[in-house]
Amino acid sequence: MTYLNQYYPQLLSGLFCTIILCKLASFLRRRKRLRDLGCGNISHYPHKDPLLGYDLHRLIEDSKRNHLNVSLIQHLHTTYGRGKTFQALTWGLKTLYTVEPRNIQTILTSEFQSFGVESIRKAFNDPWIGAGIVMSDGPVWRNSRKILKPLFGKTLFADPYRLEHHLSRLLALIPRDGSTIDMQPLFWRLYFDAATELIVGESADSLLPDSRMDVPGFLSLMERALEGVQRRVTLAPILSFVPRDNAWTEACDKIHSFFDRYIDRALAEQKKSSQCREHATSQRNSRSTSILHELVEVSQDRRFIRDQLLSLFLPFHNASPIGIADLFFQVARAPGVWTRMREEVQSVGDVPLTFELLKSMRYIQSVIKESLRLLAPLDRILRHCSHDSVLPVGGGPSGSEPVLIQKNTLVEIRTSVLHREPSFWGPDAEDFRPERWLDHTLRPKWEFLPFGGGARNCPAQQMIMAQYALILAKFVLEFETIENRDDVLEFVDEYKFSKRSARGVQVAFT
Ligand code: HEM
């Protein structure tokens, strides 16, 4: 002991010197590597807490509470971005923020294998959603994508008319006397009915007075489950030490039981019909009206099927109603847009609003794109870098040199910032102006990504665009005007898994 005490100062200084030498060696190795690869240094956020970056974490969380999250991320990009790219820390993990289209293209296409999602999403979502398409990478993801992507190409699922009878019920609930109505909860119900019908083959019919299920109960379970995931993301580094969240587990279990009931029934039907071949063909034709019934044809694994169904149910029930509610929010504040859409639909006369016809309505299509540009419901594309990679831009004093992204770096692409970049969209980038899309010279590629891009883009994009066009066409035919009835004109954002209007969508129709 005395011996140790005697040499303690020498041991300590030896250890200190070793750490300094290791750091220096790593710095020199990295500098040489950057030089060999022609990469420049990336701009860094000036953290007060250089170990964990807790200062920025708090700033981001406060901005969400104060409805200023998009402005904060925009401010960070303007202040610290070089080549529209900078680096910061998230709980000690390097995080690359980029809104540079060339970098985004590289991350989502050519270097896509090095930028996955599994390590980010699975930890927070399992066991709520296990290995569904949105949670996995590699062969598991490829297999899910191979099974699910073609379904969205089928007329059966892409047909906007599957929404029509739900839409008629919604239209019947709109007051005709000019009184105020919040469209947000109505669109949630519309998409809840459409999602349950398309995914498990049986609509919840929440827009009818006598719905067959406890819709408010189920919706609050979903909220609870999503809040639980959000909480797990916030507590990421100490997750293993946090006591079990029983309310979250209970909500997840109840949602699983809801889906399992349908899955077990579909599996039993499938088994019966495969025993009787003749019966099978007729059954398949009548049953193949839902994603569940397509899935039982390729797998009998209940957990696999449930993970896929939940992966689809989540965006269907969440992103889709938010997107259309935000569209009405913006149109109600934009004089003249409603009338112009109405004229466009009326000009085609009394003919069926087919998919092709809706697609050819240039003004309506422009309104949808403009709304998704300013208020994309899923505005964060997150990736985890699994191998050192080089991105084309973001390094050096002006940000024009390539930049090295080290293994284990998180990547955040914020489309709400990308979609408002004045260097591409012009000085009126913040304004809702659908007419900009009628200009043939506007041809965004990696500057406009409301449905993501590359190998993992949204398989439901065409379906959603067609459904939104149908909803708008039916509404403008039914009502001459829409009027905003909210004193607050600005969009006040609220983050609950995804971004939505905290004040709903208060409007009146005449
Ligand atoms: C307005 C509505 C929607 C928007 C804005 C939207 C947006 C997106 C975005 C941005 C991504 C890419 C995420 C990433 O790269 O990390 C994505 C992926 C995905 N979306 Fe959508 N989505 C919508 C509706 C839907 C619907 C209705 C479904 C299913 C019924 C769906 C299914 C999916 C799936 C499965 C993926 C993951 C694809 C993969 O990882 O291979 N989405 N969506």
From TrEMBL:
<comment type="similarity">
    <text>Belongs to the cytochrome P450 family.</text>
</comment>
<dbReference type="InterPro" id="IPR001128">
    <property type="entry name" value="Cyt_P450"/>
</dbReference>
<dbReference type="InterPro" id="IPR017972">
    <property type="entry name" value="Cyt_P450_CS"/>
</dbReference>
<keyword id="KW-0560">Oxidoreductase</keyword>
<keyword id="KW-0479">Metal-binding</keyword>
<keyword id="KW-0408">Iron</keyword>
<dbReference type="InterPro" id="IPR002974">
    <property type="entry name" value="Cyt_P450_E_CYP52_ascomycetes"/>
</dbReference>
<keyword id="KW-0349">Heme</keyword>
<keyword id="KW-0472">Membrane</keyword>
<dbReference type="InterPro" id="IPR036396">
    <property type="entry name" value="Cyt_P450_sf"/>
</dbReference>
<dbReference type="InterPro" id="IPR047146">
    <property type="entry name" value="Cyt_P450_E_CYP52_fungi"/>
</dbReference>
<protein>
    <recommendedName>
        <fullName>Cytochrome P450</fullName>
    </recommendedName>
</protein>
<keyword id="KW-0503">Monooxygenase</keyword>
<feature type="transmembrane region" description="Helical">
    <location>
        <begin position="6"/>
        <end position="25"/>
    </location>
</feature>
<keyword id="KW-1133">Transmembrane helix</keyword>
<dbReference type="Pfam" id="PF00067">
    <property type="entry name" value="p450"/>
</dbReference>
<keyword id="KW-0812">Transmembrane</keyword>
